[in-house]
Amino acid sequence: MTPSWKYSLPPTESHELEEPVARVYEIDGVVPLIHPNAFVHPDAVLIGDVVIGAGCYVGPLASLRGDFGRIVLEEGANIQDGCVAHCFPGSSTVVEQDGHVGHGAVLHGCRVGRGALIGMNSVLMDHVVVGERAFVGANSFVKSGFEVPAAHLATGSPAKVLRELTEDEMAWKANGTRVYQDLARRCRKTLKPAEPLVGDPTEHRRAVTTAGGEPVHVTLPEYRNQ
């Protein structure tokens, strides 16, 4: 008997993956909801009240636990490898449209605004609000109730607001998010299990994408001397 959580893309997209897109679990009769145009890696875990919007990317080993409250990724958002999203009973964790959550970040009962960036290994506690197009720097700890104004950079442990972002910095971030939206499409079409090859690494085919991007230290002066 096919499990109730088994998910396949529509027949019109038969060239794409037909296996379950993640380890998806029901709890108390509540089942995660994944848009057909999202990609959730098979090694991610989704539990209960989780809503994944169109064009989202959820990376391997991400854990989205909707067993106490709702976890939402709005259209075009991404949450990368090893991230955790959870919340206390009666609350929610929301990543708004085009939100971008870097590897290893922890989101707990917070709201990440539209087009905002959460740097790698950052921790956002309950009732944190990150404004539209704002950045939280890598390895930051954002205390409960803290608010990052729209289009500002906050970083540190505990995080403090440093300054306004430039248009160039926000454009850099927007491009990075488009890279992940493109990755979601690539994964839906071509990602599949494979056996490793044996041979000459100099003749090994390289990954190729038309997407571009630079590491944050190239763009943000605060990181250049670290």
TrEMBL record:
Residues 196-226 are annotated as: Disordered. This is Phenylacetic acid degradation protein PaaY. It comes from Longimycelium tulufanense. SUPFAM superfamilies: Trimeric LpxA-like enzymes (SSF51161). CDD domains: LbH_paaY_like (cd04745). Pfam families: Hexapep (PF00132).
